[in-house]
Specification:
It is a single chain. The chain has one domain. By secondary structure, the protein is an all-alpha fold. Helix 1 runs parallel beside helix 11, helix 8 runs antiparallel to helix 9 and helix 9 packs antiparallel against helix 10. 45% of the residues are buried. The chain has 12 helices and no strands.
């Protein structure tokens, strides 16, 4: 893998990890377009996710510090409960999820599913409408966590799935987004550890991994603020249209 490919993929990861357009789908598409691209397992993808993990840690550094110093035990338990479904799915179904990265057709289909979820984030339709419903409870954290587990499938955007499920449960959109990003911390960390355990010794040239890691972190940091701004302006439907168009094109081209 050359440095240009690593840099390009790092930028793509940083832009798409927090925007609701599926980083996994875009990585699969761009990697298919790059000549002679190869990696052990999905280790390079995980390195890119490590960069965006650093981005969210820095962006939410005050909240993360509260969690590390046990000053917010309620949020800590919410994150633990929300992490359990993805942890179980990632551990027991890891090989299945990795195999899904090979099919662009299904990546296109799942990307369109993300588009549908994005469309409803801006909608006023909610399953829960009460004032109490705007807070994150333990059952709601578990449901959002289940949607995060589903988003391990390539093409299903984690941001789409978690923010969609949170807003449909009546949680305030800003709060749902913040919870989504904080929930990504243990999920990404778990994926990094799992892949390093499987493929850590297979890296012969660390330079592309370092370049991808740094760029995904820098771009990812600014992407978080951009998404929160667009969410407040009810512009999530733009992402819906984008996912539907790109997903249809990818699946259509793959059929042809």
């Amino acid at each position: 893998m050359d440095l240009f490919s690593a840099a390009l993929l790092g930028i793509v990861q940083g832009l798409t990890e927090f925007l609701p357009i599926s980083s996994s789908a875009h990585l699969v598409i761009v990697q298919k377009l790059l000549p002679n691209f190869s990696q052990p397992g999905i280790l390079f993808d995980v390195a890119l996710h490590g960069g965006t993990l650093l981005a969210v840690l820095i962006y939410y550094r005050r909240t993360v510090w509260e969690l590390l110093t046990f000053k917010n035990p309620h949020l800590m338990w919410l994150l633990i409960i929300g992490t359990i479904p993805a942890g179980l799915a990632g551990y027991f179904l890891n090989d299945l999820f990795e195999s899904m990265f090979a099919s662009l057709f299904w990546v296109g289909i799942t990307l369109m599913i993300s588009g549908v979820m994005n469309w409803f984030v801006d909608s006023e339709q909610r399953i829960v409408h009460s004032v109490q419903g705007k807070q994150i409870s333990f059952p709601k954290a578990l449901i959002v966590g289940i949607f995060q587990a589903v988003a391990i499938v390539p093409g299903i955007s984690r941001s789409s799935a978690t923010i969609f499920s949170g807003t449909m449960l009546g949680i305030d959109k800003k709060q749902a987004a913040d919870f989504s990003f904080l929930l990504s911390i243990p999920a990404i960390l778990g994926a990094v550890v799992l892949q390093l355990t499987k493929h850590g010794a297979a890296v012969s040239d660390p330079a592309p991994y370092i370049v991808g890691f740094i760029l995904s972190g820098i771009v990812g940091y600014f992407s978080i603020g951009w998404l929160l701004s667009l969410l407040a302006q009810n512009k999530y439907k733009y992402f819906a249209v984008y996912c539907l168009i790109v997903g249809a094109l990818v699946s259509g081209i793959e059929i042809l």
